[in-house]
Here is the input.
Amino acid sequence: AQTVTQSQPEMSVQEAETVTLSCTYDTSESDYYLFWYKQPPSRQMILVIRQEAYKQQNATENRFSVNFQKAAKSFSLKISDSQLGDAAMYFCAYRGNRDDKIIFGKGTRLHILP
Amino acid sequence: EPEVTQTPSHQVTQMGQEVILRCVPISNHLYFYWYRQILGQKVEFLVSFYNNEISEKSEIFDDQFSVERPDGSNFTLKIRSTKLEDSAMYFCASARDRGRVGYGYTFGSGTRLTVV
Here is the structure.
């Protein structure tokens, strides 16, 4: 069974600094997708960034980028120029190409210090 | 931007009562999902629904739960005889098609269910 592990329950970063959230996963599949979701205090789940496993190039979305290491099964999220609005719970997630369901990690709560 | 709408945002119910959580998926989406997040814990898959039938369900989704798309626009989750441990945030999600599986879903803003 696939699993997603986020080893950092909480992290803090100074406003305007860069922070990296860690995620590892376990799967026997070769074709899959990885996601980072943001859950602000409103509790809504917002897709931040996604990565196709068959792509070697790391995905980027404005200030958000990932470091995808397929052999190591690692998928970290880097947030550059952190802003107060980035404060939220961040979930790493996995979806197999043939699956309907998304498997989430336990989340990392990110605090932004002014 | 199209949204998935969930109502109510918060529902309180007595233990043993039945509740129906409602969702209006994005109009041209064909795949529908329910997830649950117990406070402070991770988001867990409950069920996926396509072509008017369940396509996959987790072990959490037992006989206490059922889903329905009664009128072509709403997608509901019914919980019969609620238990205290059913207290959680319930998220509805929808997706346009399986071919876009890599794009993930669009989630609603959730319904917080409190069983007392």
